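INFO batch 0412 | record 1 of 1 | parsing
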Amino acid sequence: MVKHIVFWKLKDEAEGASKAENARKMKAKLEALAGRIPTLKHIEVGLNFEPSDAAADVVLYSEFASKADLDAYQSHPEHVAAGAFVRAVVLERRVADYEI
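INFO prediction complete | emitting tokens
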């Protein structure tokens, strides 16, 4: 199994919306991928409620059967479309992919 975890810090304003509004939009767009991308086995999207300089604003936790399945997810048109919005509102991104 492969786990894919991403942390994002968002811009204070982007796409005509505040950080909080964009965080909620990101969550909705990413959660909408469930059931639409066959290789995506599990997805959770969390919004940070304790702001600090060290904290991310949005976190994604997802699971895949294999690295090939993760690669298929990343190139899937639904993921690419959600990613376009994410890139427009994100200031910083950190990611970890690992196998268990």
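INFO post-check: The beta strands are 2-10, 13-14, 17-18, 42-47, 58-64, 90-99.
INFO record closed
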